[in-house]
Fold this protein.
Amino acid sequence: MSISLSSHVLDTTLGKPAANMRLTLSNASGEQVEAITDADGRCKSWQNMLLKAGIYHLRFHTQDYLLKHHDKGFYPYVDVSFELQADGGHYHVPLLISPYGFSSYRGS
């Protein structure tokens, strides 16, 4: 079974997707890829990184977005670490962000 990964960033203060936010995905080997959320705040393309079972780290670079849309922000970035299982299928890592809070969970 192949493994796929997507993410979605929502600005809970504005009630809108967080478009054009930079993301960095890293695997346990230290390999990294950069991505940017689309107009709907979504990202599902990780360049040529082969997703396989293991620990991953997703950094949401929130500072530029928060300063642009809120003129302030407490979090320069948000890091989410998670584990992909060999038989896991599709993984979805959403981020809910506001200038002074964030939340993430395993979505569908």
